[in-house]
Fold:
Amino acid sequence: MIDWSFFLEILLPSLYEGFIMTLKIIFWSIPIGLVVGIIIAVSRVYGNLLVSFFSKAYIIFFRGTPLLIQLFILYYGLPSIGIYLSPFVAAVIGFVLCSSAYHAEYIRGAIQSVKSGQVLAAQALGMSKLSAVLNIVLPQALRRAIPGCSNEIIYLIKYSSLAFMVTCIELTGAGKIVASRYFTYTEVFLVVGAVYLIIVSLATKALNMLEERLSFPGWENNNNG
Amino acid sequence: MKRENELILQVKDIHKSFGGKEVLKGVSFDVYKGETKVVIGPSGTGKSTLLRCINQLTFPDKGTVWLRDQEVTHHNLKEINRFRQKIGMVFQDFNLFDHLNAIRNVEIALIKVKGLKKMEAREKAMQELKRVGLSRQSLLYPAQLSGGQKQRVSIARALAMDPEVMLFDEPTSALDPELIGEVLGVMQKLAREGMTMIVVTHEMGFARSVADEIIFLERGKLLESGPPEKLFQNPEFERTRKFLFKLTELYGDINGYRR
Amino acid sequence: MENLIVVYQALPFLLQGIITTLGLVLSALALGFIIGVPLSVGQVYGSPWTKKFIGLYVWFFRGLPILVLLFLFYYGLFNMIGLNLSAFMAAVLVLGLRSSAYQAQIFRGSIQSLGQGQLLAAQSLGMSKGMAIWNIILPQALRMSIPGWSNEYPAMLTESAVTYAIGVMEVLTRGNFIASRTYRPMPIYLTCAIIFILLSYTGMKILHILEEKVRIPGFEE
Structure:
């Protein structure tokens, strides 16, 4: 029933290239998206009126509009004002912008859940506000944000498939190409699906382990004396 | 009960309003080296605000604060941070850094603010924890400590900076009764060792036995001040007498705390 | 500028897409709800086999990208079993099944946070398990789920644009159509973006009002 020759000689080699591209995409997008998210969150909470307004608008735009539109604007729209991005770059920028907005919201919530008295205590010891944020607030906030941010990272792994829509051929795109050529959508996408399920499951496990590693006694408490 | 003639802190005519309501209406007093000043008064009269105006966590609308011969008020942030190193503060809610264990809580400002090397900071921090009787709890996290222990860590944290004066903002108000004694004990010890302290509290036993001078703050104004014997036995104002009487009734005359 | 004129002329065509988009989103959410509630009940009160099966279902639909699900079902499975659905119907089905997996998790969390007590009390009064779940557990759990559930709406809204890939004539598809004709992608895409933001905003406002109306007095969590 399963055409093994097709499977081994045609499908897997074609998918392999796409798989590598998917890995490339996520290895660039995830860390940069997280860092940008932290910056936006800190700007939103501690920035002056202008900075905080800009961060808020950024978050509303990138969370409130479909990722696909953002990708289209980057890849198909920017050329009309003279900016030409390669499919890969456009995809990565799009994923960074979008995921950073979600990360920013999780981190913002976490920052605000750290009792403000601790900042006061840090300042009373002579720490500048910046030092207090870096050494006292963020270490706690980032740990609290791990569940939310892990969630967003898993989402990113999945929506990396949209890179295909701006002609960056990753795993899903490679699958579509093979499937439409040989008319074997079901088989191809069951394989593609299996690969995603494996990546997502591994990533989930890894992130859960990270969360455990980083916890300190009492960190689940939001109201600590 | 020492009164050396070295003037450490001067608070001059502090005014502060919040949202149209004037909470401090011109408060002034002097603090000498080694003195323990206790500030009492009805809730909401701005006692906490007064302390925060001293280390500039709140900026007074009018008035000045002087540390020895330098003005603390009216400075840029960098200068203020320098002054805060010399003024220690202990909060009602402890405000320990939850993600750090006890010894790290005490040493972090030494490393980040004073720039001490890790080993030096660790040594100093252990010293201070010993001073407050918590050398065996150094590796525990705030969540694993009792209220009294948390407050003692926060005292150690403030002491580690070698401040010239320590401000205590109702240090025992958030504690269960059994735990108050251990904190008051530490504060007594500090007073005996010659630390200059300003303490906002309701603990009358402490005030009576440790204070060099008691300040009664009522409705934003310094109504009366003087040594404990004077205020408790022969106050100038009827309101003072009434307030002290009420407090003694509520909180007991001599609390059973460890010396 | 001519940009504005282009947008103005494109508006009717785009706005028709709103009907498609909203239809898609609301139908998928409804389908997700109808399937999700029983799934959540099964996950909390079901037999070990039921729990395993539902767990697998949830893992499958949450672990796969939407694009892969759409291609797998619309071009693959549906054809294989001879199911001839329009792109729109296929999209509703796929998004709905996927949403049911997410919604099941939300409801499961709410049911579990109610604790054992409620069920035990109901059973001690003589109610069967089914009656207790229907009359006591679900009304509370569903109300508690509203804040978490409200997130499903904007999420589904932004995800609906992916159905462009199988040709559903929603807002983005139409926008793309016009952009390629008029060679003015930026203003068109930005207009589409604004449409989505407005849809998201109004939807959230309505959900907020709903949440207020349905709130149990004194029950703040």
Remarks:
- The radius of gyration of chain A is 21 Å.
- Residues 18 and 171 of chain A are 4 Å apart (CA to CA).
- The helical segments of chain A are 4-46, 49-64, 67-77, 87-113, 117-124, 129-159, 171-182, 185-214.
